[in-house]
Design brief:
By secondary structure, the chain is an all-alpha fold. It has eight helices and no strands. α2 packs across α7. The longest helix is centred in the last third of the chain and has 17 residues. 16% of the residues are buried.
């Protein structure tokens, strides 16, 4: 008698709604960034669209979705990629304000929401590379 095939657990990416969820999350985040003059100056491109694409691709890959980010940009190297920008505790807090507001727009269950907020908070703290003036 053969063994039944083990059912694969869905990835976080699949569980929270896949591509469309991350499109919404990142779009809502950058809507906040666009209105935040102090944070906006960290984004040298006039059009935030490319930054939006990069963050979405990164987050999709991180949470178990397509590997497009690494295929097109290489290893994430988050600290290295952010090194040219002065990331202070105040900038971290502004970033988290907009990211948490974006998370608020998603319909996630409590566990998935907590996991996302925890990751975003840890990542934001990790990016600090300067003190406030």
């Amino acid at each position: 008698m053969s063994q039944p095939a083990a059912q694969e657990q869905p990835t976080y990416y699949e569980r929270v709604g896949g591509h469309e969820t991350f499109v919404k999350l990142v779009h809502e985040f950058y809507r906040g960034v666009a209105r935040d003059e102090a944070l906006r100056e960290m984004y040298p491109e006039e059009d935030l669209g490319p930054a939006e694409d990069r963050l979405r691709l990164f987050l999709e890959q991180y949470w178990g979705g397509p590997k497009t980010y690494s295929e097109t940009r290489g290893h994430p190297r988050l600290r290295m990629r952010h090194a040219p920008y002065r990331v202070t505790p105040t900038q971290r807090d502004r970033w988290l304000t907009h990211m948490n507001a974006a998370i608020d727009t998603l319909d996630l269950d409590a566990m998935d929401e907590a996991m996302m907020r925890d990751y975003m908070t840890r990542a934001a703290h990790f990016m600090i590379n300067a003190e406030d003036d």
